[in-house]
Structure formats: C-alpha cells, structure tokens
Amino acid sequence: MAKIPFVTKDQVIEIAKTCPTPFHIYDEKGIRENARLVRKAFSWNPGYREYFAVKATPNPYLMKILAEEGCGMDCSSLTELMLSEAIGCTGENIMFSSNVTPAEEYVKCGELGGLINLDDLTHVDFLAGLMEIPKKISCRFNPGGVVTVSNGIMDNPGDAKYGMTRDQIKEAFRRLRELGAEEFGIHSFLVSNTVTNDYYPMLAKQLFELAVEIKEEIGVHITFINLSGGVGIPYLPDQEPNDILAIGEGVRRVYEEILVPNGMDDVAIYTEMGRFMMAPYGHLVTQAIHEKHIYKEYIGVDACAANLMRPAMYGAYHHITVLGKEDAPCDHLYDVTGSLCENNDKFAIDRMLPKIEKGDYLVIHDTGAHGFSMGYNYNGRLRSAELLLQEDGSVKMIRRAETPKDYFATFDFSPEYGSLAE
DSSP string covering 58-112, please? Predict the structure, then answer.
C-alpha cells in the first residue's frame, strides 16, 4: 500500500524553477476539508471549538486558514501568542497552555484576553502576583499512572512534567475562586499520536467524572473541558486511520452518560489538535543529489534533519514517494540521508524503494505538523521555504527560505561578520 502525494512530478519541476528544493508544501484544500470534518464530528456540542496547536505548524498563512474554518489557537509561548495576534485571533479564540511559564507570557495572554490554562498549583499565586485573576480560567490535570485503551498500554502520564494531581487541581480551583474566578475549565494531555478511536472517549470519561466530583465537592461552575491533543495519524501506509466522526460520537456517548445526568449539559468541549489537523497535508519535497555504494546503498538528498527532525530524533517513520515512479516496483534497498555531520540524519533506513537516480524528486509525507516547526541550524544548515498549494491549483510562497544573511544577522562581533553574508 502506498500514500498518494498531493503534488505531481510536473508540478514540482515547475515549482523548482523559482523555489529550489528542499521545501515544505501544504495542501489548502485538504486542510479546509479536514477542519470541516472535525467541526462536524463535534457539532452535537454547541460550545465546541478546536484550538489548533500552533506549535505544530506556526505559519500565519496556515493559521489564518484554520481560523477561517472556525478554529481558535492553542499557544504555548510568547511568540505563538504574537502570531495569533498578528492574524487577528484574540480573546477567547486563544487558549494559552504552557508550562514553566515566564511572567511576561502570562501578561501578554492577559492583555489579549486569552484563556489561561495553569499547569501547576504554584502558578495560581504566581499569576495573582502579575494580574487580576481572569473570571474564566483553566487548570491542567495529570491523573498519573499509565494510560491503557483497547489496544494496550499507550503512555505513562505519571512520568510526564505536565499538569496537577487530583488534590492539587481541587485546591487550585478553591484558591482561584477566592481570587475572583467564576468559570472554570479542566484540561488534560496524556499521550501523543494515538491511532485509535478509543483515546478521546477514554480521556473524556476521566475528565467528565472529575468535573462532576469537583462540582459536588467545591461547587464551582465547570464551563469547558479541554481534551487537548493526542489524536494522531497513520504515518505507516497500512495503518488504519482514526475516524474522527466515530471519535466525536464516542465522546458524545460519554457526555450523555456522565455530564447530562449531573446537570452539566452546558459544558463546552474543546480540543487542541495539531498533528491531526495538519500533518497529512504537508510534504517535504527534496531532490536526490548523491548516491553512495559502500556497505549499504545510500541516496543523499538536499534536505536534512534540519528540515525534518522527527526521523533522527524519534526514529519516526515517514513514507517516501519517488515522483514519477509511483508505479515502479520497490525493489531497491536504501538508506535515504541528509548532509548533517550526524549519523542519525536519515529519512529512511533499509527502505525498499524504486531505483533512485540523481535528479529524482522525493516526497516525504506527513510533514504538515512538527516538520518545519522543529527545524534548526546545526552545521549552519538553513531552513527551507514553505509553500501553499492553493485551492485553485496555484502555488504561493508563505515563508521564504533562510539565507546566510539571516544566519549572520544575530551576530554582533565585528563588522566583518556582516559582510560575510552579503
């Protein structure tokens, strides 16, 4: 089974005339259709909102597309708050879910009127020392232990740095109410990239039961419950994808089972998906520029881990299509590598692919989230351009490639350094 690129060899050849590889390219049509499907999946909840996880793909052009489709923005840093402000996203269209948060970031979110999600009990008084406590505020819950669903163990929240214990979140709500808060939200992020329809309903059940418990014990008004992210995509071509409609229906059943009988049928459901919203709708396009025949067969491409870190960092699988050879037999065993002075700079290891020749264009799939955004400048490698394949078929540059001048711009050592980049 193979993944089908949303760009063709002819399109890439034309694009490369003005924007050389490597580059990231995104599919506007796919992004919009998926955002509408997500909204449909949770349309049973009148207050539902997807807060796109800006960290996944922090490009204002793409953020604006999602905002046009009704999404808010989930931010976790000052710069992400500023990006949201730049596209006109303010007020409760912002959810600020951060950790180890500097004071100025809370202040900025307060100025924008965003919803603040506190990660720790100590942050309550820290925030109170910076501003008047907002009337509407959220706290992040960490249940500890391990997370299991029908297909086994998924992750270990007890080993994660995020969120408060059950007793701490109750104490946080008591203290926030004393300080003037009137409406409260519960947030939790347990695992990443789940490919199962069971995760959100399982998490929802935990949070809904906690919400009822908090209401009964403390008497606060729970306004929203944020399921955060964790809904993943099938990076492997033979994986069964998540069915977001089934996931939304699963959450609805738990909502009807737990919240409605307890008089909490006004609670809004929020999500904060990055990967599910964007990953399948991005490609890293790169060109084969070298081949090497030693103990293994290597294909060297003009992209590297500076353009896509996940394979080097996690050993993550990203499917590869050799454009123009989609129907050719995959009868050659390759490592596909970049140019960094690190042996883990490999997009594929022992991957069966069609015969690759220098000059071939390769599409690395599912880079629309945590692709460009995790880039860096090791070895002095420069970040690539980002392009948007628009709904009308035209291509727009939405971020130019870095230049040596950009790299040298932050040096302030001697006049010679400025001239080196000219």
Answer: --HHHHHHHHHTT-EEEE-SHHHHHHHHHTT--GGGEEEE-SS--HHHHHHHHHH
**Side chain identity at 238, as an amino acid letter?**
D
Specify the CATH class of 28-279 in words. alpha beta
Coil, strand or helix at 193: coil
pLDDT tens digits, 286-337: 999 999 999 999 999 999 999 999 999 989 999 999 999 999 999 999 999 9
Sign, Cα dihedral of 31, 36, 41, 47: positive
Max distance between CA atoms of the chain, in angstroms, equals 72
* DSSP code at position 368: T
Q: Which CATH number fits domain 9-24+282-408: 2.40.37.10, 3.90.1170.40, 3.40.190.10, 3.30.70.920?
A: 2.40.37.10
Q: Model-level pTM?
A: 0.94
Q: What is the 3-state secondary structure of 101-118?
A: CCHHHHHHHHHHCCEEEE
